[in-house]
Amino acid sequence: MGFFLETLIGGLMAGVLYSLVALGFVLIFKASGVFNFAQGAMVLFAALAMARFSEWIPALLGFDSKLLANVLAFALAAALMFAFAWLVERLVLRHLVNQEGVTLLMATLGITYFLDGFGQTIFGSAVYKIDIGMPKEPLFLLQSLFEGGVLISKEDLYASLVAAALVAALTLFFQKTSTGRALRAVADDHQAAQSVGIPLNRMWVVVWCVAGITALVAGVIWGSKIGVQFSLTTVALKALPVIILGGLTSVPGAIIGGLLIGVGEKLSEVYIGPMLGGGIEIWFSYVLALLVLLVRPQGLFGEKIIDRV
To answer: Per the domain annotation, does 92 fall within a domain?
Structure first.
């Protein structure tokens, strides 16, 4: 039972991180109708900025405080992601209003390759380290109930708490603030939102800024765990089954879908993997997403598409 709980908790903590990346896809699609293939590149670019700024700032300002360097680096990386969001709206989105979906998709692919190359040009292509002080040692819980207790990674636990706090903050932002309600109105109907005075271009900048912050937090967490390297862009591939399962237009679906996939892939790898030779964790989420598509193409929490003829 203790081992099962370890696996279950590990899956839940991984699922929270998947949900965080998936939220970037969902937020941008809801507000602008753009499936943002650049989300993975945004995660990498933000993590590179954080890693390099935390190295450069102490050398430039001449102090040794790691905490202050991380705070300043995070603030600068966030400002960089805000500038990126403004440029995307100014140079790309406003020129592609009412264009076909495939046109917008190709635009995000172009942004992806630009960010990959631009990030390498500015910050370098080596593997960099982000040290935000998260503990690496394990934590043992429920030792009185189970022999040896339940082993949990403190780093994964702290990362999951940070991700969960950001997800909760985003949920409150969309539900309780006027800007969040305006974004939901834009998501429901662009033309109706414009007709009541909601500035569409400004809303697009806001939602890309929010997606940039989620990318930054996800990049910092994953970069702290595995290092900042160009394989970080593949983190976004893990988010694709999440949004397919939960629904491309559903914020709660992204959260629940991430948890389901995180738990499912961990349990299947541990309990079914040995019988099939292992490797289930690699493809489990995609097979699950395919099965959901066959039964419910809009996802578990997505909106049904009704065409009037």
So the answer is: yes
- Tell me the C-alpha distance between 189 and 200, whole Å: 11
Total structural domains within the chain = 1
Q: Is residue 241 part of a domain?
A: no
pLDDT of residue 80: 93
Q: What is the largest CA-CA distance in the chain?
A: 68
Angle CA 139–144–150, to nearest 5: 35
Hey, is 141 helix, strand or coil?
strand
Give the pLDDT of residue 75: 93
Counts of helices then strands in the chain (DSSP H, E): 12, 2
Buried b (16+ CB within 10 A) or exposed e, 273-293: beeeeeebbeebbeebbeebe
pLDDT at res. 306: 55
Residue 100 lies in a domain: yes
Tell me the residue range of the domain where 85 lies: 2-233
C-beta of residue 215 within 8 angstroms of C-beta of residue 39: yes
Using DSSP, state whether 140 is helix, strand or coil: strand
Per-residue model confidence (pLDDT) at position 165: 86
3-state secondary structure 276-292: HCCCHHHHHHHHHHHHH
Do the beta carbons of residue 25 and residue 264 sit within 8 Å? Answer: no
Average pLDDT across each block of 10 residues of the chain; the chain has 309 residues. List them in order. Answer: 76 82 81 79 89 88 82 92 88 75 83 88 86 76 69 80 83 79 71 73 83 88 81 75 84 85 86 78 85 84 60
Residue 150 DSSP one-character state: E
pLDDT of residue 74: 92
Residue 262 in domain: no
Distances (CA, A) of 281 to 2, 202, 264, 276, 287: 21, 40, 9, 12, 11
